[in-house]
Amino acid sequence: MATLLARLGRFAFRRRGPVVVVWLLILAGAVLAGLTAPATPDDDFSVPGIESQTAFDLMRERFPGMTADAGDATVVFVAPQGQRVTTAPYRSAIESAVRQLAEGGQVAMADDPFQAGAVSRDGSAAYARLMYTVKASGVTDASRAEIDAAAQVARQAGLTVEAGGSAMEASGGGGVAEIIAIALAALILLITFGSLVAAGLPLLTALLGVAVSMMTILAVGDALGLSATTGTMALMLGLAVGIDYALFVVSRYREERGRGLPAADAVSLAAGTAGAAVAFAGLTVVIALAGMAVIGVPMLTKMGLAAVAAVVVAVLVALTLVPAVLGFVPEKVLSRSARRGQSAEAGGKALGRGGARWARLVLRRPVPVLLLGVALLGALAIPATALQLGMPGDEAKPTSTTQRRAYDELARAFGPGFNGPLMIVVDARDAPEPEKAVESIAGHMARTNGVVSVSPPVFNDAGDTAIFEVVPTTSPTDEATKELVRELRDARPRFTGGTGATFKVSGTTAVNIDLAGKLQDALVPYLATVVGLAVLLLLVVFRSILIPVKAALGFLLSALAALGAMVLVFQEGFAAGLLGVEQTGPIMSAVPIFMIGIVFGLAMDYQVFLVSRMREAYVQGEEPRGAIESGFRHSARVVAAAALIMMAVFAGFIAEHDPFIKMIGFSLAAAVFLDAFVVRMAIIPAVMALLDRRAWWLPAWLDRVLPRVDVEGASLHRDPPGALEPEPEPVPASAR
């Protein structure tokens, strides 16, 4: 492997012009294909195997004209303190506003609150329900502006008007967090390398790789059913690993130049060593992302596979384009001291002094460092035992948004359960008297504890299927609402006995409850799959049994600690105000899966890059403790820079208002910090120091069976890079 990649790096360096042209042609082709491809389909967040999804499927079949996921909005009208919306001037203003709403271009239906009985008991508030002809994602800004214009009519009469619902979710402008993150990454790279060219090279190649992968995803989106949001993880991870992988190759190239190697030999050795680590690190990320298929949610599977494509492109860029670009600037990527001819030995010592000092500290006190690290992560992980998954809605938005204010007004006037009604779909096809069967089921539900009201049933044209709403006494994210859903489903045999009918519990609240349960149940199988496969891969890479096991255990520690920190902030409210979290509640269902998938890949990146340098020193004859110090001397600073870059990228998203993005940004930044600086920089070397030679133990029979991948580049040290290609490599005149 090392020899093959060394030859590939040397080839890219020598044929840099054609290699760069090929990548530019690939980019141009991807852009052209992406811009001319059909529009990507809307999000199809179907979740096979849950009851609420089965109910939606039944609705689509029995109510052909009904779109279960059509956009909706609820416009709330509130009278001034002590007055009623039913008084003549307020009622007239509300009716006028509703007529204006009904004329909206995308509006299918707008209910008059006075005809629909949508007035609170005390008369202080009323609401109008709007249904759209398109999905929520298809509702335009113009349609949302129509709601605001109609609301102004009622506001002029003295009413307070707010609007919520799925149709009010405008697409974010985006881009600001990414720009800030890239700027911070550039600053960290500049501090790390001390050269504008060296700092810009990883950013440039990473952005090119992300552009290729994202435009390719856009090009095949229609054919493969990939929505616009499918590429979210691909964009995030493509940028993250793209910078990381190029950073490691460039750093190794600079190190070899500092040892006195010519540019071509330094590129060859960097590609054969750091490049091999990049290839296997990328493979661990691919395992983590492809493992999302075991979750059983098609959209998450597609997001994972799209991100796989972005990671593969990042690896190919690091192995081919980075060496080619180095060929154009072989001297300019070096620090000023290196270009002035400072001695290699002095430069190397200066570069790794901090990492070596830290390694010596850990080697002198491995037990206290280990205990302190485990205690810290263990303490942070304790809140994770109280993890509650859910899908917070408008109640989790800032109070500055109209959606949050509408939610609060509806909860005050109509009760907290009004914001999350359950939809009951009754299949009465086999019932002798469908209407009586539905009436009986609805009556049982109305008498159930925890139910405020049951709406009149609506039958389909065939008269064999009905739907009605059940309003709970508690809010959509309350544990009591989950219990009510479970109780209604458990009571199905009793409610339907003798009627010949059956029913399913659905609606947004039930979907969120079912999805949270499915994802929570999938966490353990997902972890077992990706961690198990990664341990096998690391076993091949490091030819050790204990190193892969402790790498996996270290990741589990950091992942649990990050989950605990997220629960502490977003669920319990600790320091929530500092992060702009205005409403605590359950952790959004998909966040732990996203966090684990992304952080596992990055954690294994840091593991491979740090420990591969230790193994390289060990294979070359250093003692185990000396190999640990060598690994830190050469890799600690670069791994720390990579981790800081990722933290900057992810932390930028904490400022977003969207609770999902905010949780993702916080959890990823926390997990990267804990894994890189506590696990990889403290716990791992402490454990290796205690194990000494046993850390590299491998049974003889297993040593014979396992393939040799030579990630440490032992073959390159036996045969110097110059022996691979004896022809001298001229340095470009522009670099002299």
pLDDT < 50 runs, ≥5 residues: 343-351, 723-736
Structural class by secondary-structure content: alpha+beta
Instruction: List how many beta strands DSSP finds.
Output: 11
Radius of gyration: 30 Å
Roughly what percent helix? 55-70%
Count of helical stretches:
26
Largest sheet: 5 strands, antiparallel
Q: How far from one another are the termini?
A: 33 Å
Strand content: 5-15%
Question: Can you describe this structure?
Answer:
Helix 1 packs across helix 11, helix 7 packs antiparallel against helix 22 and helix 9 packs parallel to helix 21. The chain is α+β, with helices and mostly antiparallel strands and 736 residues long. It is built from 26 helices and 11 strands. Helix content is 63%, strand content 8%. The strands form 3 sheets. Strands 6, 7, 8, 9 and 10 form a 5-stranded antiparallel beta sheet that branches. A 4-stranded antiparallel beta sheet has the order 2-3-1-4, with helices on both faces. The protein is elongated. The C terminus is likely disordered.
What key phrases describe this protein's structure?
63% helix; four-stranded antiparallel β-sheet; disordered C terminus; 26 helices; elongated; 11 strands; alpha+beta
